[in-house]
Design goal:
The chain has 231 residues and is α/β, with parallel strands linked by helices. It has a single domain (3-157, 195-230), classed as Rossmann fold (3-Layer(aba) Sandwich). Helix content is 40%, strand content 23%. The chain has helices at residues 3-15, 20-29, 31-34, 37-46, 64-72, 85-88, 134-143, 160-167, 180-193, 198-207; strands at residues 54-58, 77-82, 98-102, 118-124, 144-155, 210-218, 223-230. The longest helix has 14 residues, at 180-193. Bound molecules: S-adenosylmethionine. Residues 8, 12, 27, 31, 34, 59-61, 81-84, 87, 104-106, 124-126, 129-130 line the site of S-adenosylmethionine. Keywords: Methyltransferase, Transferase. Residues 16-25 have a biased composition (Basic and acidic residues). One of its GO terms (molecular function) is S-adenosylmethionine-dependent methyltransferase activity.
């Protein structure tokens, strides 16, 4: 295994709270909330109707979204990309049309997909976990067909004060004793989960060759869903 793959895995294990199996369990239990009726309405609005499409899910976790798609569209070709062993371990009973590949989406090789081979692509809560998304967006610009779709959902930056009040409820920051370790961890978590504003994400997509066509605010503005067309 390459050093980069291993160091990304170590970063993610810590980012996911140090316990990968619990993180995978959380991903399973939050699947319905992250892929609710509104999500499916948004997805169906922009994805092609035909039944022989290639759809990719980036950072697919236990691949529940892809399994739902497989059940709805047996004619689709489905590809999930994932790196965390504890997420990969949850992918059992793979439908015949689902392929899972292991790659580091911080700098995926050009060969992961042939050029212009993907019709639609989802990245649900992936981008904030990347060290930077530029190389991935460049690759997607090459891999997704011209006019094809990228749907991206992620946290967007919230004020530090809101985050601190949520993390340390009923705390008087002017006088209460706080553990340095808890504070160190909370500031690290803040910056890892609040990397980009909505405008920054939109602009990054534009810079990398996509045309954002719709944005939805989620969770009172703490998250964003974007549909973007590949130019
Ligand atoms: C918050 S989870 C979301 C999982 C899934 N998309 C969902 O919505 O249920 C983010 C996923 O992205 C994966 N991931 C994060 N960084 C990655 C990277 N550099 N390469 C591949 N997968 C990555 C994580 O392991 C994790 O499974």
């Amino acid at each position: 295994m390459s050093d980069d793959l291993e160091s990304t895995r170590q970063f993610l294990q810590r980012h996911h709270g140090g316990d990968g199996h619990r993180a995978a369990e959380r991903t399973v239990t939050s699947h319905g909330r992250n892929h609710d009726e509104d999500f499916w309405a948004f997805w169906d609005k922009y994805t092609p109707r035909a039944d022989n499409r290639h759809v990719a899910d980036l950072g697919c976790g236990p691949a529940l979204f892809l399994k739902q798609l497989a059940a709805k569209h047996p004619g689709y070709t489905l590809t999930g990309i994932e790196i965390a062993p504890y997420m990969l371990a949850r992918i059992d009973d793979k439908p015949h049309n689902l392929d899972i590949r292991i790659a580091d989406l911080n700098a995926p090789g050009e060969e992961v997909f042939p050029p212009a081979s993907i019709d639609a692509c989802l990245a649900n809560m992936l981008v904030h976990e990347l060290f930077q998304p530029v190389i991935l967006f460049q690759r997607l610009h090459r891999w997704i067909k011209p006019g094809g779709l990228l749907v991206l959902t992620d946290n967007v930056r919230q004020p530090l004060e809101n985050f601190l009040h949520h993390r340390f409820p009923d705390t008087d920051f002017s006088s209460d004793a706080l553990s340095p370790q808890d504070l160190n961890d909370s500031f690290r978590d803040y910056f890892e989960h609040n990397r980009y504003t909505a405008d920054e994400l939109v602009r990054l997509l534009e810079l990398c060759g996509f045309e954002p066509i719709e944005q939805q605010q989620l969770r009172e503005g703490r998250a964003l869903r974007i549909a973007a067309r590949n130019r």
